[in-house]
Design a protein that fits this description.
The protein has about 300 residues and is an alpha+beta fold. It is built from eight helices and nine strands. It starts with about 25 loop residues before the first strand and ends with a helix.
Length: about 300
């Protein structure tokens, strides 16, 4: 698969490969041309932009009162960007820039054409398998490099025109779940519901994000793709959150009887309450890739 760079929300195309991506230090907002606002939320704004002629998805972090919740924002952002560049994978977007851009700070990654996964819609089994294999393999590569994503969400899974998927915002998510959340502007209700929906049970007990929490989030997404509903969905946000904490998993085959038993077992293994018992991203990706090969050969 060709290396991909993906805008988190609006799409776009770049032919740049991971090998040629170099971290650019932004020192003035004039260095970035902001073309269109894609999204505004708790942690600032996401823009479709250009840096040195290259199309990028630029996250502008603007804190309440004009201050970042870190002592040395530039060092924190550059470290996050450098961490993201430690892993090269065709289904991971690469962070290419970090720095100051008044009145806030910038992280940017290159982008290609693609669309975020639609919410509350079931997909054909072949699409579930392909997307799960792509994202699972990307996460496995990150985990093997000693990294975790920390913010796997449907809106960060981008499906390209060829049907393959990529994961964006590697290295960004931990910045957006800091203990200093209260210093940022109010989050939209949609974002709040999404964050709760993919948080693993241990995270409600103050455990940090990890490779296991990445797998839990991907397991939820796979289930949603197959069934058109979240595996722990209840009547309201509080009951859903409690169902997640208790890992009250509803069998995929109860939600959609046509789902194969092997996919039900894989989803259940990904959303185990005990993070130590969850399947690894590599095992999950391997199982899905094998199914994809079987499908293509029949």
């Amino acid at each position: 698969m060709k290396p991909v760079h993906v805008c988190a929300l609006c799409g776009g195309a770049s032919d740049d490969g991971h090998a040629s991506a170099r971290l650019t230090r932004v020192t003035a907002v004039s260095e970035i041309a902001f073309d269109a606002l894609c999204h505004s939320g708790r942690f600032g704004e996401l823009w479709r932009a250009r840096l040195a002629g290259r199309p990028v998805a630029a996250r502008k972090y603007v804190a309440a009162g004009g201050a970042m919740p870190f002592r040395d924002p530039i060092a924190v952002l550059e470290r996050a960007a450098a961490d993201a560049q430690r892993v090269t994978h065709p289904a991971l977007a690469t962070t290419v820039a970090a720095g100051r851009a008044l009145p806030g700070w910038i992280l940017a990654e290159a982008w290609i054409d693609g669309s975020p996964l639609a919410e509350d819609s079931a997909a054909p089994l072949t699409r579930v398998v392909r997307i799960g294999a792509d994202i699972g393999d990307a996460l496995a590569a990150a985990h093997d490099a000693g990294l975790f994503h920390g913010g796997v969400r449907r809106r960060r899974v981008i499906v390209r025109p060829d049907g393959h998927a990529a994961l964006v915002a590697l290295g960004w998510a931990p910045l957006e779940t800091s203990e200093a959340d209260a210093r940022w502007s109010a989050e939209t209700p949609t974002s709040a519901r999404e964050i709760d929906a993919y948080r693993a049970p241990e995270q409600y007990d103050a455990s940090p994000a990890s490779a296991a929490t990445d797998v839990f989030a991907l397991g939820c997404i796979l289930y949603e793709l197959a069934a058109g509903r979240h595996p722990f969905a209840q009547r309201d946000g509080y009951r859903t959150r409690e169902a997640v904490r208790a890992a009250s998993y509803r069998s995929l085959r109860l939600a959609t009887p046509e789902a194969p038993a092997w996919l039900d077992e894989l989803c259940a293994a990904a959303v185990e309450r005990d993070p130590g018992r969850r399947v690894s991203a590599g095992v999950l990706a391997g199982a899905l890739s094998e199914r994809a090969r079987d499908d293509s050969s029949t």
